[in-house]
Amino acid sequence: MSVSPARSGARRNFNLPNLLTFGRVVIVPAVVACLFWPDNYALRWTALGLFAVAGITDFFDGYLARAWAQQSALGRMLDPIADKLLVSSALMILVADGTIKSWSLWAAIVILCREILVSGLREFLAELKVSVPVSNVAKWKTTLQIVALAFLIAGRAGEAVLPGTVRIGLALLWLAAILTLYTGWDYFRAGIKYVVEE
C-alpha cells in the first residue's frame, strides 16, 4: 500500500526532533511567566529548570535529526526561530527585572541587534535561493548565550547557593556578545556580495 505524499510529509514534520523544537517554543512563555515575580525564588528555580530543558532540546533536536536522517524543511526553519525566541525573551525579561543593567545592557543590545540583522539577511538571501549554513562558531555562540542566561535566570536565588552567580552570568554574557559580533560579521561578509550584486 502506497503512502500519500501529504501523509509522508506530515510524518516527516512531526518526528521527535521537530517535536523537541516545538517544545522549546512552548517553554518560552512559561519561562517568562515564572520570571514575572523575580523575588520569588521558587519560581526562579522553576524558570531555570524549564530553561535548562529548552537548552538541552536545542542540542538533541539537531543531533537526533542528523543521526536518524530526519532533517526537514520545517525543522531547519523552526530551529533558529526557537533559539531566537528563547534567548530574546530571556534577555528582555532579565532587563526588565534589573538583573541585566548598566553597561551590561550593551551586551544584550548587541545580541538582539545581531539576531535581527542575521534574520533579515537570511530572508533576503532566501529570496535569492542562497543558503548560509550555520557555522560551528555560531553554535558555540548559542551555547554560550544559553549558559550565560541560565546563570542570570538563577540570579538572586542562585546567589544564595553560589555567591557571584550574577557576576558569572554577566561575564559570560559579554563573552557571548563578542562571539555574537564575530558571527554576525561572518554572516554579513558571506552575504554582502549578493546584496551588492542585487
Number of helices: 7
Biggest β-sheet, characterized?
none
Oligomer: single chain
One letter per element, helices H and strands E, the order comes to HHHHHHH
Description:
The protein has 198 residues and is mainly α. The protein is 82% helix and 0% strand. The chain contains seven helices and no strands. It has helices at residues 5-13, 16-34, 41-67, 73-96, 104-127, 136-161, 165-197. Helix 5 runs parallel beside helix 7 (165-197). The longest helix has 33 residues, at 165-197. The radius of gyration is 18 Å and the shape is globular. The model has no long low-confidence stretch (mean pLDDT 82).
Annotation keywords:
single chain, 198 residues, mainly alpha, 82% helix, 0% strand
Secondary structure elements and their pairing?
Elements lengths: L4 H9 L2 H19 L6 H27 L5 H24 L7 H24 L8 H26 L3 H33 L1
